[in-house]
Amino acid sequence: MSTTDIVILAAGRGTRMRSSKAKVLHSLAGRPLIEHVLASALPLCSGHCVVVTGHGAEQLEQALAARPLRFVRQSQQRGTADAVAAALPALHPSGVVLVLYGDVPLIERATLQQLLAAVTTTQMALLTVQLAEPSGYGRIVRATSGAVAAIVEERDASAEQRAINEVNTGVLALRTEQLQQLLPQIGCDNAQGEYYLTDLIELAVANGIAVATVAAADPSEVAGVNDRAQLAALERHYQRRQADALLAAGATLADPARFDLRGTLAVGEDVFIDANVLFEGDNRLGNNVTIGANCHLINATVGDNAIIKSHTIIEQSEVGPGSVVGPFARLRPGTVLAGECKIGNFVETKKAQLGHGSKINHLSYVGDATLGRAVNVGAGTITCNYDGVNKHQTVIGDGAFIGSNSALVAPVTIGAGATVGAGSTIAKDVAAEQLALTRAKQLTVPGWKKPTKTEPQ
Ligand code: UD1
Ligand code: CA
């Protein structure tokens, strides 16, 4: 097996994006376009993966610094052939090279594998696609034998050639020696005065190298992103595809067109996801989980039979089986609900562990806290975890009851079975089974009368 190198072209300006950001760094489903290309292509690379940069080169090199890539700069954008020529010195001379575009994000690994499999010493491979509306793309011109003869760019095409529906995707694979042989022969005598990589095809045929084609089944797999409208359309297509995969996996989506997944989502049986739910990062939902409308889950794990009511945000947290969260709850990173827990409206938690059956039903902040089993936290309870400099822990034992509108000044421990009276500020530990309260005595003023309205002077 010869070495497979990969070249990803990403030097173009992306003028039509009207952006200061390099085009291939724009996001599709929460990941930069070029990351999608890398996800498909890198596993096929046994040599070097070379990214050709130009416009926004530094930005791109910085964003991809952690990836196993080589960057080459194309100083002037003189066309796709010139871009590949810039990468040539970084390639293994006796290997195979796969050329990809950074702005064609949905290319699939299986397609690229097919392409690589078609490369021999006497044959290169080109990925094409049939488009009902081919405008903007290079057309594939075939000889009467059916063999590929050339690619003609739209600007240079005759009316007859423009009627061809088979178009160039830009993706191709060939032996590096062939590239070395043919690239220097490419000129710039065309409508744009650029060095077109597509001219390689006609030159290959003239030099006795056959051109095999692989057809992409789905046009969106090879759709390029040139402007924000195309990006938005591709995002919807991608989301719909993910939604369909979830439906096939047995989840119900109230509206597959109003579902967004920017990451991964594993689902159990009979999951129900209402409209406008957004998932980011890696999420897991158990069996019979219900997610209400307008929820936002980021790296969340939700156990069997749990119900997440509408407008709830769950980040980097675990919701145990049978728990009910929301509406309008916010679980911040480090929240762990054991099981059968209840978190109600306008409750914020952070780094908080709740034992089985514990409840925080209304209007509370519980952070840096460990609650035992069956704890009941009344409305308006605040764990005062921050003294302005450091964070401190609150520990509440099994079965404790925290009366409404209490402030628990951490570090503080409330013993198992203890009760805190409503409206208390608790700054000292409370022993198990005790009642603690810090409440001014209520008094009734004898003989008090409501003031009466006086006439202005
Ligand atoms: C190109 C193809 C066309 C094909 C279409 C598919 C050529 C001449 N035309 O046209 O046949 O149907 O893609 O999407 O190849 N780039 C560089 N350096 C340059 C020029 C471009 O790195 O000097 C990069 C761009 O950043 C982009 C890719 O190459 O990632 C394609 O360039 P673009 O200008 O978008 O080509 P198209 O006109 O779309
Ligand atoms: Ca393009």
Could you characterize the architecture of this molecule?
The protein is α/β, with parallel strands linked by helices and 457 residues long. It has three domains: 4-222, Spore Coat Polysaccharide Biosynthesis Protein SpsA, Chain A, CATH 3.90.550; 249-333, UDP N-Acetylglucosamine Acyltransferase, domain 1 (3 Solenoid), CATH 2.160.10.10; 346-441, Hexapeptide repeat proteins (UDP N-Acetylglucosamine Acyltransferase, domain 1), CATH 2.160.10. The protein is 16% helix and 32% strand. The chain contains eight helices and 37 strands. Strands 12-14-16-19-22-25-27-29-32-35-37 form an eleven-stranded parallel β-sheet, covered by helices on one side. An eight-stranded parallel beta barrel has the order 15-17-20-23-26-24-21-18. Strand 4, helix 2 (57-63) and strand 5 form a beta-alpha-beta unit. The longest helix is centred in the middle third of the chain and has 21 residues, at 228-248. It is elongated. The structure holds uridine-diphosphate-N-acetylglucosamine and calcium ion (CA).
Strands, helices and their partners?
Layout: E1 4-10, E2 27-28, E3 31-32, H1 33-41, E4 49-53, H2 57-63, E5 70-73, H3 80-87, E6 96-101, H4 109-117, E7 123-130, E8 139-142, E9 148-152, H5 159-162, E10 166-175, H6 176-182, H7 199-206, E11 210-215, H8 228-248, E12 252-253, E13 259-267, E14 272-273, E15 277-285, E16 290-291, E17 296-298, E18 301-302, E19 307-308, E20 313-315, E21 318-319, E22 324-325, E23 330-331, E24 336-337, E25 342-345, E26 348-354, E27 359-362, E28 365-371, E29 376-377, E30 382-384, E31 394-396, E32 401-402, E33 407-409, E34 412-414, E35 419-420, E36 425-426, E37 435-436
Parallel strand pairs: 1-4, 1-6, 4-5, 7-11, 12-14, 13-15, 14-16, 15-17, 15-18, 16-19, 17-20, 18-21, 19-22, 20-23, 21-24, 22-25, 23-26, 24-26, 25-27, 26-28, 27-29, 28-31, 29-32, 30-33, 31-34, 32-35, 33-36, 35-37
Antiparallel strand pairs: 2-3, 6-10, 7-10, 8-9
Bound molecules: uridine-diphosphate-N-acetylglucosamine and calcium ion.
